[in-house]
Amino acid sequence: MASRVPSRHVLAVLSALVAALSAAGCVSMPSAGPVRSYPVTQGPEAQGQPYQQVVFGPPGAGWKPTQIVQGFLAASASFGNNWQVAREYMTPRESRAWNPSWSAIVYSNGPNVEAPVYTGTTAKPTPTAKNQQGQQSAKKQASEKTQARVTITGSVLANLSGSNLSGYGSYAVPSSSAPQGSPGAEEVIDLVKFNDQWRISSAPPELLLTSDSFKSDYELRNLYFFDPTSRFLVPDPVYVPLQATPADLMNGLVYDLVHPPKDWLSDGATWTAFPTGTTFPGGTASIGDVTIDGVTAVVDLGGTIAKASIQVMQQVSAQLVWTLSGSGLSGQAVQSVEVEVNGKPWIPPDSQGNPIQRDSKLYNPAGTTQTSKTFYYLDGAGNVMSSNGIRAKPVRVLRGNTKYSQVAVSPDGKYLAVIGKSGDLFIGPVGGALTERSGSGYSTMSWDPNDDLWATMNDQLVMLRGAGNAGQPIAVNVLSSVENASPESPPFTAVKVAPDGVRVALVISGNELVFGAISWQAGANLAKPTPQTLQIVLSPFNVPPSSNTTFSSVTWYGPDDVITLSGPTPAVTEYPVDGDAATSISAIAGMRSITASAGNALIAGLAKGQMMGNTSLTGSWVPIVNGVSPAYPG
Question: Are 310 and 205 contained in the same domain?
Fold first, then answer.
């Protein structure tokens, strides 16, 4: 089993970084000083392959405050050798104290180095020439600038939080507290004269990076947590710097499984199976090194987990297997996990005494394996039809009428929902009678694994609790971020719930694609949710709105990606939910809707009632049966 590792941008040559750092408004190169490079091995998908990482040289003699700051920013952007060169720009005291861990401010324009402001002077005696009697004249007192402050400005792309935990970094998560590209708070760097040379006496607690440096120095990885029903693992994308040693990387990952980061997937959306009070060797909450035995990561746990049930240990093991697989920035990637409790291997049930786990038989991310090939659609007479694959003979599921315009079936195949052309909604068991539900103006809909239906209704987002529940639609608040509790404004024009029932893809105003997590507030009555207990918190990853693009369909493809159909000229695009690069898929004229399912063919509905199938993301579209509104369960 191997987890999906998003692609990375690797800095291969000096000129690329020099260009990035020398861009208009960004930190410029110092006027002197050597540039060194050394080979580093990067990433689980590039095991054993050396890449050149640029390391800037130490400060030159007589450098001014601006040059010192410019050189420091350039050197600190390189993670090599624990910022040893960057520390040479500091006083000894600040060099020992400075530890940005893995946190950073990423600038879309900047960081800009402003002119220094001198904040302190020291009297310096200066002898004058001898007088006529050959005696030394009285000394004059001259002032020497010995303290300075340099301000850093720029437009902030993202804030990444990190901390130092017993020598290890926790994971940096993008913050959406400020719009991308917005002016950031000014950062200051203080300098003093030390041994007659300018040195930094106080630096910001985080790295100040250009967007290009960030792309070169960080990669995305996934932590895995459980959905509220404990059925599925949900990937939580986080950033980790490429400089991390295998031990640092895995220690940080395990730490964050025990202490989940505060992000869009926390706060009622997901949870960790690690019991509160789980500790590591030494009886403290700090991490002892995860050790490597070949391709196996050995994780020793202690504290309250020593009394955990078999089920909890199976859940903990599943989180570790999925999170650590593929990690290790040098040598072989981790392929299996051995869990120890107080130094003794934990033996999973039915493992014939083998503690090594290469996969999780009980808990996996939803959508990682091929699901049923069956899809549903409406034929020309309005009947709801099903087909077990694009070449199978269709079967009528429900005798309908021409007033139906859209169909959806629950993931378990038990319940059916249809929207009429006038915006009314009907729900019932597959093969049984449909009942009209309250409200009107329904436009899109999506089932979750709990047989609850999510829909857009009159530009609002609503949830209908339980297929057999005849209650009113529940309004759902959409919050812009964990930090910002202000609701997003409608119109919401499309909704699609992920197979795990936690994450959601939303289209706002027709032209903005965003992702969010369904969050149940503490103490919420899950049987009777209200707008105050049920909400969606948006991810910092989104597709910025475009005046030239209108999304007409959105569908999930596996655990980490959605596929959209947009216009006015039909375009099909795969978007990773973690913000990685999008991929174009071939499209054909007349596309009106599209549906996808892990491992199955894409199916598109065309304007004239014909449907087309594509068996892969890179294949060709072929005609299948006539019909409209194709939909896989979900």
Answer: no
